[in-house]
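call fold(seq) -> tokens
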Amino acid sequence: MIVGDHGTGKSTLLRELAATLADEMPGGQWVQLTLPEGGSRWHLRETVDNVATVRRLARQTEPGGVLVVDGGEQLPAVYRMWLSIQIKRRGRFCLMTSHASVAGFKTLYQTSLSAELIEELVSELLAHDYPVKAPEHERNVSTEVRRYLEGVDLSDVSNLRDLWDDLYEVVERVTEQ
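ret:
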């Protein structure tokens, strides 16, 4: 398991590991599970589809291969437990991301955010030369992003995706001027 809150880099870490997993454990399968946002808390049809997809891919995973499940929290707890037993019994491996630890799986890594990490990522993004309409926008984008971040307590940020969305709106506003 790779465990962590929304937007803390679980899927990004999984994508970084993908090539190594494919080279060292050929015959694997990969699935990214999702459920629709909003609406009912219970998404029976989508949950049944997710279980069917994982079950099919688990059967297609070759012995010694790894089944990668991004979004393991989208599966019912009882199915995750069954999957951990079946995957081991058949000589396969499973690497899963989830928002919390899952019975039957060992947590290999716990993702987390810190104010320092967020600052480092923002600095890295601002260091790139992104195309903008006019040269003065480059300076304005960086200035406005930094100004916006001054008003945010980065130690309270628990979902980096939400912060990126907010920063995207800042950049969009600056470049439309």
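The longest strand covers residues 93-98.
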